Amino acid sequence: MPLTRPTVLILSNSAAFVRQVAAHWPGDSRPPEFTILEKSLVHGLEGCQYDLAIADAISSKSHGEVKKAIAEAGRPAILIHCDPSLPFSQANGSVVELYGKSGDGAWAAMAGVLGREILSRSHAEARARDAETACADAQAEATLGRYMIEMRHNVNNALTTILGNAELVTLEPGLPAKAIAQADSIRNMALRLHEMFQRFSSLEKELSVVARESGKASPVRATASGK
Predict the structure, then answer these.
(1) I want to staple 77 with a disulfide (CB 3.0 to 4.6 A). Which of 25, 53, 60, 213 is the partner?
(2) CB-CB contact of 58 with 13 (8 Å)
(3) Closest-CA residue to 104 (of 38, 34, 25, 16)
(4) Contact 52, 120 (CB under 8 A)
(5) Does 219 have pLDDT greater than 70?
(6) Is the pLDDT of residue 218 over 80?
(7) For the chain, how long is the longest CA-to-CA vector?
(8) b/e map of 149-174 (b: 16 or more CB within 10 Å)?
(9) pLDDT band at residue 77 under the 50/70/90 scheme
(10) CA dist., res. 162 & res. 191, Å (int)
């Protein structure tokens, strides 16, 4: 399944700001999709779907308001500010602040590099979560499989009793045809269940053979790699 492209939300009322962000984004095998949103709509971020926000506060007096809104959204964000009294770069939770001035493209290049790294990390974390979920599902299925294999002897013993009694019922003289047919159905169903559990035994043997073969092959590969 192809990986979906990440989405970068640009919060700005300035066409120049948007152009600089897009123009300075580093080359990537998975370039993001850029979506533009006016800063007047910054308080509606909870309903937006995006992986990273880049907000414009270079020439705005609403630095604190924009910062609060993107922080409350809880997704990774880069805020470009123009306050020289603040550090050139600092991180506050999910928001990274960069100092930039209007007309200076240096901030855009840094925002592009930083943004790409943020997206790469988010993608890696998502893949790790998917792998953990898949591993947990596999472990649950393995536990169920082990339980079924361990219980097959008890089930087979019970099925043997059912089969024996069904055979005795069908041999009982004087039984009506309906009772004989019902006993025969019980016998047939018990045989089908017995075949199913026999398949479990076959699978266990096949898996044991595969495990032994894997164990034999490992030392050979280790020796070859050691050479």
Answers:
(1) 53
(2) no
(3) 16
(4) no
(5) no
(6) no
(7) 104
(8) eeebeeebeebeebbeebeebbeeee
(9) very high
(10) 10
For 100, which DSSP code?
-
Q: Which amino acid is at 125?
A: E
State the number of CA atoms in the 13 A half-sphere of 45 facing the CB. Answer: 30
Question: For residue 68, with 0-12 CB atoms within 10 Å meaning exposed, 13-18 middle and 19 or more buried, which class applies?
Answer: middle
Mean pLDDT of 99-106: 76
pLDDT at 202: 75
Per the CB < 8 A criterion, the answer to whether 70 and 11 are in contact is: yes
Task: State whether residue 37 is helix, strand or coil.
Answer: strand
Amino acid at 183: A
The SS3 of residue 210 is: helix
Taking the whole predicted model, whether its pTM rises above 0.70 is answered as no
Angle of helix 15-23 relative to helix 106-171, nearest 10 degrees?
Answer: 70
| In the predicted structure, residue 7 carries a pLDDT above the cut 60 | yes
Residue 36 β-bridge partners: 10
